Amino acid sequence: MRRAEVNRETKETRIELRLNLDGAGSININTGVGFLDHMLTHIARHGLFDLDVTAKGDLQVDAHHTVEDIGICLGKAFAQAVGDAARITRFGHAAVPMDEALAEVAVDISGRPFLAFNAPALKGRVGEFDAELVEEFFRAFAVNSKTTLHIVLRYGNNVHHSIEGIFKAFARALAEAVKLDPRVAGVPSTKGTLTA
User: Fold this and answer.
1) Predicted local distance difference test score (pLDDT) of residue 190
2) What values do phi and psi take at 99, rounded to 5?
3) Range in 12-26, 74-88, 173-187 the model is least confident about
4) Cα 119 from Cα 196, distance rounded (Å)
5) How far apart are alpha carbons 97 and 88 in whole angstroms?
6) 3-state helix/strand/coil string of 2-26
7) Among 114, 113, 119, 158, which Cα is nearest to 135's?
């Protein structure tokens, strides 16, 4: 089983995260940030990953450190669980409608961290959640998972729907990229490695 566990403790946050790429969407999430819990639930449910996240952060400041550090931990766990990336599909793509919003995500488990984030409509807040934190979360994930990640919000008027569409598309694209393909011999790269 492709599993990983990451614990991170700083003066700003304390996070425990467990991930199983070959799960069935089992979820146990408590970050103290309700909207983030909702979005992480979408990653697990629509990616069919088992995800367990417990976080305590300096929410009296705001949710920035908690959101970013969970992105860091999820990225590290993802990299550990993928391992040498042998026999994976490597690339994933999904376009997901969420009512009036349409989000598109493409991912390459490349060993090269990069984020292209094109969602200028994500402004303001959803409840107490600052929409600008979505980009911070995905940047932290991309850097720490060493994946190339392209996220485009094609259109959307409702910020909640737009963010939810992005997280669902991310989950579906990631699930496709980590799928094991019996036709792939070794690592899916002409270099023979995705770690350098």
Assistant:
1) 46
2) 55, -115
3) 173-187
4) 30
5) 26
6) CEEEEEEECCCEEEEEEEECCCCCC
7) 119
Q: Collect all residues with Cβ–Cβ distance below 8 Å to 156 and sequence separation of at least 6.
A: 98, 100, 101, 102, 103, 121, 162, 165
Tokens of 140: 């932290």
Ranges 39-43, 59-63, 102-106, 162-166: which has the least confidence: 59-63
The Cα angle at residue 175 between residues 107 and 113, in degrees rounded to 5: 30
Type of residue at 76? K
Q: How many residues would you count in the chain? A: 196
Among the listed residues 122, 21, 33, the one whose alpha carbon sits nearest the alpha carbon of residue 70: 33
pLDDT tens string 145-156: 999 999 999 999
Residue 194 has what pLDDT?
A: 55
Read off the pTM.
0.94
Q: What is the pLDDT of residue 86?
A: 78
**β-pair type (27-30, 50-57):** parallel
Give the C-alpha separation, 107 to 125, whole Å: 27
